[in-house]
């Protein structure tokens, strides 16, 4: 593969709801450019972009795949992203390094939820739309268009209209060339023809929208247009390019990725009108090739053959093979060996990469996703990537004992690859908690642990770290006395137990006249602390208790530290039983961000989860609901929220405080 200058590069992310046809479109683009000789199919598991076994098995994209196509002397770096919400982190990475976006819609399903969500996340990135699956039963170009206009604020402007639909889909009318383009299914061969007479009215209506959008794309043209002058074809072209580059209009194409129909006109548009990397908002107004090196790592994978691979985009300067660069985030130099242009599982080594290009490098020592590789003499740190926070927590444990260390180091490695998972050890419940973006994500982590690291693991629900406390003050006696020939054992204490709302534990002594000698005090405290590790209700740790040692007795020969410790344990257990013990549960601060229309359902659901809604406030088009909810009710909230809002809601939570568990629930927990 050649080295391409900045102006000959297009970095295009393909985004859409799962199943709209992103991977099929990527495959068709590769075929169209001659990079592959056979059109692979998702259903046959032989596409270039989805080559991981886990992707082939599920027939979905899990990883963003970089697929460079060489076309008309340019290099189009296609980033095929996953549509499934659990892998939203991959989309974030791709959008950070793309200069423009292809939004794929199914002509049958129209604008689906994830498409809407990712559309928002595109921010200011210029985008075009490809209405796919025109060959399918119930395909409707108009309906998809209408839904786009309903849901998106940008002007939506078709540059084509379909000729035929469903099994009868034959091609498109190119509204700029004013010609019919007919495609041969499979080969994608394109022939031109006259516009079918029955489409004449439609063509006129759409043409007017194009002229308007073109005028909006160029100030000079806008004046001309507003003064009622007609724009020439050349001016319309220029205006369209301006609007496409600035993102002031979204131009629409259509076709069938599966049958390789309608791909070439869209690719021509990318080449002719979509922005090159010098337009990216990070570098706007700069001479990208004259600036010092700044390359952002947006994805890291542990490749089974090559080892760790970092994918990066060069924003400014040139990245050279066999060079030394500076990781400005880690403040460490890194040695670059080969620069690899990847295409699915294929790779080509290149001597250098110009500003704007995307590639991978193997075997760096400290670099991870989000880091900037730069020039030590003139270091730059590029803005990182804001990954979504994981929301589904599950406990994970190795199936065979002794694999604990192996599990935690494997998870560490997976966390380097995937910034949307976290792992933590809960010291109270002794569980390893894995947090992910959803159930499928968890399943995939479990599979990877087995296939890549040989650790067989199971997942269970997270245990809730309950605690126990007391609600009354009591005074109790504890006596440990044994006479078994020779030395006996003797310890005797009187303890006062009382609730201590503002601290976990306090121990005091106020013993008169040496009833218990001073040297045994530490043993008594030790006994109390030991007893507190397992409460009398359900065996959870005891908290918020003050214990005072105020009396007792001793034996000059038989008393020992051990005897006093045991006496204290006895006293504490007895005392706790009498002091109205209760179970406490962790209460979380929860913030849920949702579109207004789900407000009622969300509040109803939080109430049914024993939550207290503290308030809500509008945030743009959304509502932020603040509540406090017991952790025990929140274990599967990420799944519930997804189903109530069809994936449109977000939430986060953090620990707030402990509160008493209602008696009926406490009883059930104690029985368990
Ligand atoms: N009839 C028809 N089917 C299509 C077309 N494009 C894609 N499909 C089918 O739709 C399904 C999903 O296609 P993909 O290309 O995997 O969709 P995707 O958007 O990449 O899906 P994710 O990566 O999982 O988000 C597959 O069964 C494809 O064969 C099309 O143009 N026509």
TrEMBL record:
<keyword id="KW-0648">Protein biosynthesis</keyword>
<dbReference type="InterPro" id="IPR000795">
    <property type="entry name" value="T_Tr_GTP-bd_dom"/>
</dbReference>
<dbReference type="GO" id="GO:0003746">
    <property type="term" value="F:translation elongation factor activity"/>
</dbReference>
<dbReference type="InterPro" id="IPR004540">
    <property type="entry name" value="Transl_elong_EFG/EF2"/>
</dbReference>
<comment type="similarity">
    <text>Belongs to the TRAFAC class translation factor GTPase superfamily. Classic translation factor GTPase family. EF-G/EF-2 subfamily.</text>
</comment>
<dbReference type="InterPro" id="IPR000640">
    <property type="entry name" value="EFG_V-like"/>
</dbReference>
<feature type="domain" description="Tr-type G">
    <location>
        <begin position="7"/>
        <end position="278"/>
    </location>
</feature>
<dbReference type="GO" id="GO:0005525">
    <property type="term" value="F:GTP binding"/>
</dbReference>
<dbReference type="InterPro" id="IPR020568">
    <property type="entry name" value="Ribosomal_Su5_D2-typ_SF"/>
</dbReference>
<dbReference type="Pfam" id="PF22042">
    <property type="entry name" value="EF-G_D2"/>
</dbReference>
<dbReference type="InterPro" id="IPR035647">
    <property type="entry name" value="EFG_III/V"/>
</dbReference>
<dbReference type="InterPro" id="IPR005225">
    <property type="entry name" value="Small_GTP-bd"/>
</dbReference>
<dbReference type="InterPro" id="IPR053905">
    <property type="entry name" value="EF-G-like_DII"/>
</dbReference>
<dbReference type="GO" id="GO:0032790">
    <property type="term" value="P:ribosome disassembly"/>
</dbReference>
<dbReference type="InterPro" id="IPR014721">
    <property type="entry name" value="Ribsml_uS5_D2-typ_fold_subgr"/>
</dbReference>
<dbReference type="Pfam" id="PF00679">
    <property type="entry name" value="EFG_C"/>
</dbReference>
<dbReference type="InterPro" id="IPR047872">
    <property type="entry name" value="EFG_IV"/>
</dbReference>
<dbReference type="Pfam" id="PF00009">
    <property type="entry name" value="GTP_EFTU"/>
</dbReference>
<dbReference type="GO" id="GO:0003924">
    <property type="term" value="F:GTPase activity"/>
</dbReference>
<dbReference type="InterPro" id="IPR041095">
    <property type="entry name" value="EFG_II"/>
</dbReference>
<dbReference type="Pfam" id="PF14492">
    <property type="entry name" value="EFG_III"/>
</dbReference>
<dbReference type="InterPro" id="IPR035649">
    <property type="entry name" value="EFG_V"/>
</dbReference>
<dbReference type="InterPro" id="IPR009000">
    <property type="entry name" value="Transl_B-barrel_sf"/>
</dbReference>
<dbReference type="Pfam" id="PF03764">
    <property type="entry name" value="EFG_IV"/>
</dbReference>
<keyword id="KW-0251">Elongation factor</keyword>
<dbReference type="InterPro" id="IPR027417">
    <property type="entry name" value="P-loop_NTPase"/>
</dbReference>
<dbReference type="InterPro" id="IPR005517">
    <property type="entry name" value="Transl_elong_EFG/EF2_IV"/>
</dbReference>
<protein>
    <recommendedName>
        <fullName>Elongation factor G</fullName>
    </recommendedName>
</protein>
<keyword id="KW-0547">Nucleotide-binding</keyword>
<dbReference type="InterPro" id="IPR009022">
    <property type="entry name" value="EFG_III"/>
</dbReference>
<keyword id="KW-0342">GTP-binding</keyword>
